Amino acid sequence: MASTRLELLPVVTTWLTRETAVKAAILFGSSARPAGALEAVDAWSDVDLHVVTTAAVRLEHLDWSRELAGLSFCHQTVRPATGGVRKVTALFVEGEIDLVLVPAARLRLGRLAVRLGLHRKSAAMRYALNEIATCLRSGYRFLKGEDSWGDFYSWIVAEMPGTRLDDREATGLADVFLCDLLWILQKLERGELVAAQHLLHRSLVETNLRLMREWRLRRGQPLPSFGLGRRAECLYPPEELRLVQVNARLETAELYRAAWRACENLVTIMREIVPGWKVPAEMHRLLSAKAESQPS
Fold this sequence. Notes:
Four Helix Bundle (Hemerythrin (Met), subunit A); six-stranded mixed sheet
């Protein structure tokens, strides 16, 4: 599989070069990192592309079996991506291609707004720019359009902090966590194990992963990947890995224990990020009452 994936990028690059609707294409992720670097390309790596285009809708509906006829096409899908854009995933026997499609007109407006300093006043614009910075900071290179867009992307990576959490945002996540924890405990009392398990992963574990990422960044430990939990087994020491992992089968007592452990982990992480945060007294009493009635 590794050898076939190495053949994927040259074919994609040839297509990008001839596709007139693609004004710029930026390779990022593991495929853009040097050999031997942490998270360098391996047998499971995708080809991740940031594509500036004048025909985003058309590119969402390409016939990839025709566009990349030299590859063995399997499937494709389109989904929302961060920053208010769309991502196309095309799957081949030889590997996966992910194209984040950025309308050229929108990006030109963004570049003009940055030149005028308007990004300082727009939270939505800062969010979009920070998403780009987060994706590209661990490594990127232009496959097309560097003359037109190279300076702007260099500015984004150098000047924008990337996706971060301030104390207010971290506190907001922790407060939502407590509400969702109570919801999970109530669902377990009613025997709704699947619903409880779903929210355990989607809210509690995800919150701890986001907070852990911020804690590491505040300690000057930038993460090489832009995804939550990526390479945590390689990056995190055992005492930190325990704070973001969960082990629970679809069984009442195990889900109770996993939920409480996630809460203990939240308190540990928040103590490092926002030392003044704590579980409100009334909420603590309510949760303690739930703890007394849980199965052993």
